[in-house]
Amino acid sequence: MGFLGLSSSSSSSSSAGMAVAVAVLGLVLNAAVLCNGGITSAFVRKVEKSFDMPLESDVFRVPPGYNAPQQVHITQGDHVGKGVIVSWVTMDEPGSNAVLYWRENSNRKKQAEGKVVTYTFHNYTSGYIHHCTIGNLKFNTKYYYEVGLEHTMRKFWFVTPPEVGPDVPYTFGLIGDLGQSYDSNKTLTHYELNPVKGKAVLFVGDLSYADNYPNHDNVRWDSWGRFVERSTAYQPWIWTAGNHEIDFAPDIVSIP
Ligand SMILES: *[C@@H]1O[C@H](CO)[C@@H](O)[C@H](O)[C@H]1NC(C)=O
Ligand SMILES: *[C@@H]1O[C@H](CO)[C@@H](O)[C@H](O)[C@H]1NC(C)=O
Q1: What's the gap in Å between 215 CA and the centre of ligand 1?
Q2: In sequence order, which residues have a C-beta less than 8 Å from that of residue 138 and are 6 or more positions away?
Q3: Angle of CA points 157, 160, 165, to nearest 5°
Q4: How far is the CA of 57 from the centre of ligand 2 (A)?
Q5: Which atom belonging to ligand 2 lies closest to the Cα atom of 186?
Q6: Which of 3, 78, 130, 216 could pair covalently with 83 via S-S, beta carbons 3.0-4.6 A apart?
Q7: Smallest CA separation from ligand 2 atom 9, residue
Q8: What is the mean pLDDT of each run of 10 residues along the chain (256 residues)?
Q9: Residue nearest to atom 7 of ligand 1 (CA)
């Protein structure tokens, strides 16, 4: 795997750390050969502190409809690329745990059943968080999927990766320290508009920065999930946790 370049802030809780996030594209290549694809974008996010988008911003809009699934995101669901974990949140009631999915050009729909969890943090109570793994998918194939089957259905799609082997090209985006500022939105937009289309994101930690808010206001996790849905619902983001994912706040909760 040859990465074309990498820049990430130190993940301190300082505002400078929050402001710097650079998306860089890497190409996965034949293991034996490293190839330099060049710099794919001249965009460099500015270093100065930028401001979080207010909760009423367009990017945080709640999808319309009773109990509509929100914060839809997918990640790789097995080790070879034939599985996908679909996750989403419903707010009014648990609703259906099922995902309906089908191959492009096929109307044979399959259904997989997931599970639902909730959590509390200080005085925050989460919505109903659903996770459903779908497996036995075909490589390199476009699938459509639907969630919210009992109430408001929402439909998305993804493309599975090719089978692993020599000379199999695949393009990862690499994003870290994203946050939810106006500049976070620019970073995500640059990733989406890059002509070298990333097929999956390797996320190197520090997602929502909700911990910068009083009581680590977890409402800012929900807003972040809605913000990134425009990418995370359509391609796997593969996560690692950063220090901002540790909800260490001994004054309000005893266990991080
Ligand atoms: C949680 O507490 C803070 C102040 O301590 C308050 O501003 C906020 O509205 C509360 N949130 C909920 C969901 O009760
Ligand atoms: C975020 O970026 C998108 C796409 O460029 C744009 O449509 C939207 O208005 C932006 N929202 C904010 C709050 O900056």
Answers
A1: 8
A2: 82, 103, 160
A3: 165
A4: 8
A5: 2
A6: 78
A7: 58
A8: 30 35 34 60 79 98 98 97 98 98 96 97 96 98 97 98 93 95 95 92 97 96 98 98 91 83
A9: 214
